[in-house]
């Protein structure tokens, strides 16, 4: 179907609009079911009645036919966790799509820049030794975020040679920084005075949404939304990068400035995500490929679809983490790895797939 010109903007083809609608419905259903499921199962109508009762103008329309226990479970425990999972999944997926375009590498993911290692080092210091307690209630997320920013600065310092930063040096700097900080994190863990501290640190590093609260949701949601909006506005430049840097320059892209902008946005989004959830692998690596297989390589479509698919995937990964070994809980990183490994085996076996999508 041909795209139409409309006031200088290209109208989306009908098939993509249908994609967005279908996956938005699936996301809404996933949120509903995820909030329902647990030791105390709650009817879906009750789930949304309780949610709407906390919204201005809608609270007076609700009949209040639920118990205080049900309200506490839905509103204070499950809804923040499910929505935080959706935000994290969307953020990892959209950041992964951008990083893969920047590096033109199908195996790139949001953690390739070493940001997550900086966050992990700071978080482990907090968990094991109680460092940075002067930050108050938000000690763990703020410390992890500061650690991610320091790691990003280190990556830029190492990558800058002769006043310029190349993609290759940037990636190598990210890998080196990640290795050094991972070694520092492991060393800190070995110094832990108590086994409980080691277990808590390892659990956090494998990713978890345990203890999600409404106050942990606002900042990540805003940062991910703003970052995704900026990336979407840059979709033409991202598309040009897939053709190579020389082609991008020919099309008017300032490669040096665009590379720095993209890395800063990706690092801030990744640092925010890791600060509230730990490192959750494979989402930013796997979801963009699925989006490209559905819509082609145009980032105007890949980015929004990646966000929807990433949110849905993370919600169900968290459901599995909560329920598979209930009442015990798995780190989400284990669930995503168990899904990501077979996916890439299947992807490698497909002779028709190549990085960049199917060209729709």
TrEMBL record:
Keyword Transmembrane helix listed: yes
Subcellular location, principal: membrane
CDD domains membership: TM_ABC_iron-siderophores_like
Superkingdom field: Bacteria
Membrane topology of the entry: Multi-pass membrane protein
Parts of the chain that traverse the membrane: 20-38, 82-99, 111-132, 138-158, 170-194, 214-235, 247-267, 273-291, 303-324, 330-348
Keywords assigned: Cell membrane, Membrane, Transmembrane, Transmembrane helix, Transport
Subcellular location(s) of the protein: Cell membrane
InterPro entries the UniProt entry points to: ABC_BtuC-like, ABC_transptr_permease_BtuC
Annotated family: Belongs to the binding-protein-dependent transport system permease family. FecCD subfamily.
Protein name: FecCD family ABC transporter permease
């Amino acid at each position: 179907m041909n795209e139409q010109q409309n006031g200088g903007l290209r109208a989306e083809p009908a098939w993509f609009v249908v994609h967005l609608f279908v996956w938005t419905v699936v996301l809404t259903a996933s949120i509903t079911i995820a909030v329902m499921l647990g030791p105390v199962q709650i009817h879906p109508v009750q789930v949304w009645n309780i949610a709407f009762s906390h919204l201005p103008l809608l609270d007076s329309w609700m009949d209040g036919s639920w118990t205080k226990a049900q309200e506490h479970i839905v509103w204070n425990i499950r809804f923040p966790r499910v929505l935080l999972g959706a935000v994290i999944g969307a953020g990892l997926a959209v950041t992964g799509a951008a990083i893969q375009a920047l590096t033109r590498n199908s195996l790139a993911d949001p953690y390739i820049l070493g940001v997550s290692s900086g966050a992990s080092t700071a978080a482990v210091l907090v968990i094991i030794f109680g460092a940075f307690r002067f930050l108050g209630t938000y000690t763990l997320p703020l410390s992890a975020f500061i650690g991610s920013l320091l790691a990003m600065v280190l990556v830029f310092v190492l990558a800058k040679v002769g006043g310029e930063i190349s993609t290759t040096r940037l990636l190598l700097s990210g890998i080196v920084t990640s290795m050094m900080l991972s070694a520092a994190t492991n060393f800190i863990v070995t110094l832990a005075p108590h086994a409980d501290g080691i277990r808590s640190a390892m659990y956090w590093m494998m990713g978890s949404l345990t203890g999600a609260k409404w106050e942990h949701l606002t900042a990540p949601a805003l940062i991910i939304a703003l970052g995704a909006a900026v990336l979407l506005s840059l979709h033409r430049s991202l598309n040009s990068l897939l053709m190579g840097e020389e082609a991008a320059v020919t099309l008017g892209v300032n490669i040096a400035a665009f590379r720095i902008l993209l890395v800063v946005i990706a690092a801030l989004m990744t640092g925010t995500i890791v600060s509230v959830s730990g490192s959750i692998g494979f989402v930013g690596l796997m979801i963009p490929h699925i989006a490209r297989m559905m819509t082609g390589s145009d980032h105007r479509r890949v980015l929004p679809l990646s966000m929807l698919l990433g949110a849905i995937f993370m919600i169900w990964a968290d459901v599995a983490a909560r329920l598979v070994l209930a009442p015990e809980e798995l780190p989400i990183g284990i669930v995503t790895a168990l899904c990501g490994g077979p996916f890439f085996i299947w992807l490698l076996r497909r002779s028709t797939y190549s990085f960049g999508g199917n060209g729709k």
